[in-house]
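$ ./design --mode recover --in tokens.txt
reading tokens...
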């Protein structure tokens, strides 16, 4: 499908490019004809040249608008071709050409670093199809915290609806890619929308209309009477108006958010919001988001388009040719400033909420794309019984051809003690559990054929390291993480994953500490799993048969080679691989 769409948009782009070039040439022809006509008008001074000139100006303006429309469609075709090129490469596992969200990596987060949520070849990179700053931020935030059951259910319905409409999703993404926004621009917009702006004052409001009218009256009277005094009066008013502009110059720059191209970004935002407003949705959450943009029967996209126009007009103050003329005659930028202040007073509170809606839809669009690319994944059923069960569970970032699924059920017991030799699949299984619980918490499908879960906060201790920058040893870092997990369990029941804890101490201390941690997990009603190489830890299940269960991954020696089937089994691991490998490689 993606390859076909890629070819379609490449062909369409070629057609539009030819049309774009032809219109560009026609624009040049019209401009040349206008100049020739102007020369002939000066030479012959005949009336019909004046009318031809007006006609050519009208044609030039119409051609410019058509040219601009074709240019926009051309850019959209280019974006759509790039989108499908990237998706085709992704599906064929050739490359991962999407932003990886490395700026969101947080080593202290409860699971993000341990589960590779951000960074190269991360969950975020596989999911991310956002193009705006707020869309990217909303996706990152969605992956950093489990939503409540009601929101998860709403998200699931919205994602399933969007997943079915490939054309809508790609059109939305293509429009989003037109934007050149950033965190800096977003912050400036936010600060602008919330900063109070004093009105220009009644006297100035009246004066902004009186002096332009006086100028027009004086200059008209001069042309009618040819009396020099009226030309002098109009000149004085012209200079006076420029002086008024100078007094407002600083305020104009502040209201312009001190940012270039903000008008273009807002125009792209308006296009995205307009697409949401015009769509017909069936899922409750998308309808809810749409209704936020259509409050009081007014389209937010129209308001933001108007704001874009005001910023564009205000930004033109840097034009040294038109600014003196427009302001000396009409006080153009003062009127624009007043209109901008009025817009903020009336609509400022809606601006950021509308941008948030746009980001939310862009986030849902990414998760819908993930759903479309993985039709074999299942949307989890939700329960209130703290039951968590997966059928054919696997890791979504592994190669589809090689990954092996496992069934796991936490409904009868709260905690699994997992054993197995090195490379048998313990850590991968724990990460599979964690990453799929994170996906389930967003409303996305999980890498399993079936799933039934009670959404829980995920707490993980799997990947820690020494930190020279803050003088933290591996052992101390691990203790801090375990303390963080225990403190969190005081507030709410959670899904906990621990991989070979207390590695920085001796074997007896490690064993006793691990057993005590497991007992504490049981006391706090935690659900989850702990991986260990110490089979004596597994004996803890004898004392807590209703809360603990032993599971394992085995290794077999076939034709003097290690064989891993990566299948989860009941009971304690029986086979070892370390001694065999060291003997085979001549270490011992």
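writing sequence...
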């Amino acid at each position: 499908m993606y390859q076909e769409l890629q070819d379609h948009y490449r062909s369409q782009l070629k057609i539009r490019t030819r049309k774009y070039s032809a219109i560009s040439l026609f624009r040049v022809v019209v401009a040349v004809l206008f100049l020739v006509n102007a020369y002939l008008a000066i030479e012959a001074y005949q009336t019909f040249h004046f009318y031809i000139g007006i006609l050519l100006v009208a044609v030039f303006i119409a051609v410019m608008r058509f040219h601009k429309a074709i240019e926009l469609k051309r850019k959209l075709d280019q974006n759509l071709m790039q989108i499908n090129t990237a998706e085709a490469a992704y599906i064929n596992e050739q490359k991962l050409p999407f932003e990886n969200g490395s700026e969101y990596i947080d080593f202290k987060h409860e699971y993000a670093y341990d589960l590779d949520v951000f960074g190269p070849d991360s969950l975020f990179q596989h999911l991310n199809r956002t193009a705006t700053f707020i869309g990217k931020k909303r996706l990152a935030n969605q992956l950093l915290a489990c939503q409540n059951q009601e929101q998860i259910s709403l998200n699931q319905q919205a994602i399933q609806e969007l997943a079915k409409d490939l054309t809508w999703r790609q059109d939305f993404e293509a429009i989003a890619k037109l934007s050149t926004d950033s965190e800096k621009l977003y912050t400036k917009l936010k600060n602008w929308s919330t900063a109070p702006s004093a009105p220009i004052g009644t006297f100035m409001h009246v004066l902004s209309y009186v002096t332009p009218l006086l100028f027009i009256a004086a200059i008209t009277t001069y042309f009618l009477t040819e009396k020099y005094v009226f030309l002098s009066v109009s000149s004085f008013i012209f200079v006076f108006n420029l002086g008024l502009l100078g007094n407002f110059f600083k305020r104009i720059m502040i209201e312009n958010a001190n940012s270039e191209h903000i008008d273009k970004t807002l125009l792209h935002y308006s296009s995205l919001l307009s697409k949401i407003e015009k769509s017909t949705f069936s899922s409750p959450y998308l309808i809810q988001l749409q209704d936020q943009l259509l409050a009081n029967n007014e389209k937010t996209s129209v308001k933001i388009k108007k704001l874009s126009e005001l910023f564009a007009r205000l930004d033109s103050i840097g034009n040294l040719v038109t600014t003196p003329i427009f302001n000396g005659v009409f006080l153009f930028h003062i009127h624009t400033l007043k209109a901008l202040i009025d817009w903020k007073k009336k609509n400022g509170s809606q601006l950021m909420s509308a941008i948030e809606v746009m980001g939310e839809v862009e986030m849902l669009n990414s998760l819908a794309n993930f759903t479309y690319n993985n039709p074999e994944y299942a949307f989890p059923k939700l329960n209130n019984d703290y039951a968590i069960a997966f059928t054919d569970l696997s890791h979504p970032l592994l190669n589809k051809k090689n990954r092996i699924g496992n069934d796991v059920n936490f409904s009868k017991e709260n905690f699994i003690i997992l054993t197995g030799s090195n490379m048998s699949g313990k850590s991968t299984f724990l990460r599979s559990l964690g990453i799929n619980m994170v996906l389930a918490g967003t409303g996305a499908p999980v890498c399993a054929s079936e799933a039934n879960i009670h959404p829980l906060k995920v707490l993980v201790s799997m990947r820690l390291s020494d930190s020279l920058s803050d003088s933290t040893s591996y052992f101390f870092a691990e203790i801090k993480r375990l303390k963080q997990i225990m403190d969190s369990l005081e507030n709410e029941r959670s899904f906990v994953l621990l991989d070979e804890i207390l590695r920085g101490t001796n074997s007896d201390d490690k064993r006793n500490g691990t057993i005590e941690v497991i007992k504490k997990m049981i006391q706090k009603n935690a659900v989850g799993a702990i991986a260990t190489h110490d089979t004596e830890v597994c004996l803890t299940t004898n004392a807590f048969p209703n809360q603990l269960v032993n599971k394992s991954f085995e290794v077999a020696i076939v034709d003097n080679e290690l064989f891993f089937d990566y299948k989860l089994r009941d009971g304690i691991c029986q086979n070892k691989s370390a001694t065999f490998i060291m003997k085979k490689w001549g270490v011992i």
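exit 0
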